[in-house]
Amino acid sequence: MRKIYIIENEKDISNLYKLLFEREGMEVEEIISSGKDAMEKIEELKEKIYDIVFLIDNRLPEESGLNIAKRLIEISPILKEQIIIATADDSISKEEVEELGIPHFLRKPFSLEELLTAVDSIQNQNS
């Protein structure tokens, strides 16, 4: 079972994700609410980052979700498979996210089923 890190600055939304994941028997390791804190956590986790799913909102204070995703990919290119980018920002396209090699892109608002499908896909790829 992979641990999930939610990187989302909207408290209500992140709590909804947490409840959903826990209801599905998944472990939410941490909710991170700013880009700066996310970058610090990534550096802290660098050595043990491989069993983690990152659900990243693109609009964050201090750093965009795409920049956080790029940093994860710099640490190790295989991490791109463990990232879900979620955004309501129309200036970011699915193609732009896919060009980074990230296969999981959700346009807000999305259904909880879409979110669970993306997480299941990540969890099943290495099991």
What's the short story on this structure?
This protein has 127 residues and is α/β, with parallel strands linked by helices.
What does this structure look like?
It contains 5 helices and 5 strands. The protein is α/β, with parallel strands linked by helices. The protein has one domain (3-125): Response regulator (Rossmann fold). Strands 2-1-3-4-5 form a 5-stranded parallel beta sheet, sandwiched between helices. Strand 4, helix 4 (94-99) and strand 5 form a beta-alpha-beta unit. It is globular. The termini are close together. 29% of the residues are buried. The model has no long low-confidence stretch (mean pLDDT 91).
Helix segment count? 5
pLDDT averaged residue by residue: 91
Strand tally is 5
Going across the biggest sheet, name each strand in turn. Answer: 2-1-3-4-5
Q: What is the gyration radius calculated from CA atoms?
A: 13 Å
Strand residue percentage: 15-25%
